[in-house]
Amino acid sequence: MAGPVISVRGLVKRYGSREVVRGIDLDVRAGEVFAILGPNGAGKTTVVEILEGYRTRTGGEVRVLGVDPAAPTRAWRQRVGIVLQSSRVQPELTVGETVALYAAYYPDARPVAEAIEVVGLAAEAGQRAGKLSGGQQRRLEVAVALVGRPDLLFLDEPTTGFDPGARRSAWGLIASLRDLGATVVLTTHYLEEAEALADRVAIIVDGEVVATGAPGEIGPGGDGQGEIRFRLPAGARPPPGLSAVPRVDTGGGVRLPSADLIRDLHRLTGWALDRGIALERLSVRHPSLEDVYLDLTDRAPG
Amino acid sequence: MNDGRLVAHQARFDLRTFVRDPTATFFTLALPVIFLVLFVSIFGSQTLESGVETTTYYVPGIVALALVSATFVNLAISLTQQRESGVLKKVRGTPLPPWIFIAGRVVTAVVVGLAMAGVLVAIGRLFYGVALPGTAAAGFLVALVLGAAAFSALGIAVTAVVPTEAAAPAVANAITLPLFFISGIFVPAESIPDWLVSIADVFPVKPLNDSLFVAFDPATSGLGLAWGDLAVLAAWGVAGAVVAARGFRWIPRRG
């Protein structure tokens, strides 16, 4: 197997005495969609702009496509496509002209019409970029980023400010990018976006990676953990000897954050059969990425 | 595409962008023509103390104004716009070498400036009977090309001190308008007080104006190369290029 497309070890970025990235490790594998998820101000954009060669770093090792992005070369730039949050194309040029302008920078560019087709702007090819809607402008930026057949594509907050319909259609587009053979790194503060698109997610909070893995496997749940819920009749108390302390609400609902599902279920059901107690609405739930994300971001200061 | 063709590629798209910007085209293309017609209409049938007709005086003067507008003012405003809106940041993330982007912008500005010079000289000849320079056309062309290059460099340099898109036209005009007045562009130099003229001598607009005027001055013989003025222009151009190389930024202030 080839080495990682992106390899980051101990990345640190300081502005004066303020440390905004505090020792991050990341590996992005070839062909995957990798999401960097975190609340606003967590340091996501700083991290990707270091990977893109826009910002210098204070410390740590970074390799992107085998090159240190602190010294980007023309050949390296030809393999990297970037869609920034804070960039624009020239509003006076049409969609077709914009893509043609950028296509000339690459040795083996995609045909302009094809790049426009991929992002679904064929009908707008003759329209000026400045007249497009926000979502269409972002699509145009994606077309520009794709036209050079990049091996690696960065998408910084690709759907921020979109209405739900535009977001769904942007997700369809991003999912299709994988089929073009590019590795995709996207940042987002929408966890549904990371869940819908990413093969793997790194959650960044306050300049640190607090969790990383596939969206379904992040956090507890992969190793026999989960939450057991049921309802007890009035007056009944849950049995002792469980792996965690159950939380009982006033209506008799019980939540047990179990560290050992099999053992706890065995103990619970045995206890209920013995006493003839119905464990109403018994369910086992694995924490979703949302639970993990909210839990992790809640703990962060500020 | 090799680098030379890439510069031409950039310039072609820059020119398209320019002609679709109504504000830029009005101030760069239409206003100098309006100025020439107005000044010649108001002061037309006079002869200056030097014996030069006012019509002849205003043609190279408005050429100087048009050249400064097409290069300095245009680049200062549009590059600041491109920086603050994120166009430059986007370009910086592509394989396009930064010098090619800048070269494309400068080529466009110089081409527009030279074309405007041609238009104004033609209007002077066709409508006001202003004689074309003879052998002194050589000096006129040298002054045009050197002036366009120097004011392009200065236009790029000034973006380093322009904080926002909104401030760019104000800064560009605050620099050029007073200089146009004291450098004899709007008012013949002979009616400007000496102390103002000596201030104007330090800045690059008057050397440009003077070196362009030489070619139209009936007293000129030979190639019409005003070496002293050209040297001052060149010095300003070099200073502009140094500041531009050090101070030019690609990233908007907001990030």
* Strand order, largest beta sheet of chain A: 5-6-7-3-8-9
Average of the residue pLDDT scores of chain A: 89
Task: Return the string of H and E elements of chain A.
Answer: EEEHEHEHHHEHEHEEEEEHEH
- So what's the overall shape of chain A? elongated
**Number of distinct helices of chain A:** 9
Summarize the structure.
The complex is a heterodimer of chains A (302) and B (255). Chain A is of the alpha/beta class and 302 residues long. Chain A is 29% helix and 26% strand.
Task: Describe this protein's structure.
Chain A is an alpha/beta fold. Chain A has helices spanning about 45-50, 75, 95-105, 110-120, 135-145, 165-175, 190-195, 260-275, 290-300; strands spanning about 5-15, 20-30, 35, 60-65, 80-85, 150-155, 185-190, 200-205, 210-215, 225-230, 245-250, 255-260, 280-285. In chain A, strand 6 (about 150-155), helix 6 (about 165-175) and strand 7 (about 185-190) form a beta-alpha-beta unit. In chain A, helix 3 (about 95-105) crosses helix 4. The radius of gyration of chain A is 24 Å and the shape is elongated. Chain B is mainly alpha-helical and about 260 residues long. Chain B has one domain (about 5-245). Chain B has helices at about 5-20, 20-45, 55-85, 85-90, 100-130, 135-160, 165-180, 195-200, 205-215, 225-245. In chain B, helix 2 (about 20-45) runs antiparallel to helix 3 and helix 3 (about 55-85) runs antiparallel to helix 7. The longest helix of chain B is centred in the N-terminal third of the chain and has 32 residues, at about 55-85. The relative contact order of chain B is 0.15. The mean pLDDT of chain B is about 95. Chains A and B meet through helix 2 and helix 3 of A and helix 1 and helix 4 of B.
What are the salient characteristics of this protein?
heterodimer; A: about 300 residues; alpha/beta; 6-stranded mixed β-sheet; 4-stranded antiparallel β-sheet; 9 helices; 13 strands; about 30% helix; elongated; B: about 260 residues; mainly alpha; about 0% strand
